[in-house]
Amino acid sequence: MELSCKTKYALLALLELAAFYQKQEPLQIRQIAEKQNISDRYLEQLLATLRRGGLVKSQRGAKGGYLLAQEPWQITLLDLVKCLEGSEGLNQDGPQISTPEQAVVKEIWDEIDQHLKAQLETYNLQNLSEQRNNKQQVDLMYYI
Question: Whose CA is closest to 80, among 124, 111, 129, 44?
Answer without folding.
Answer: 124
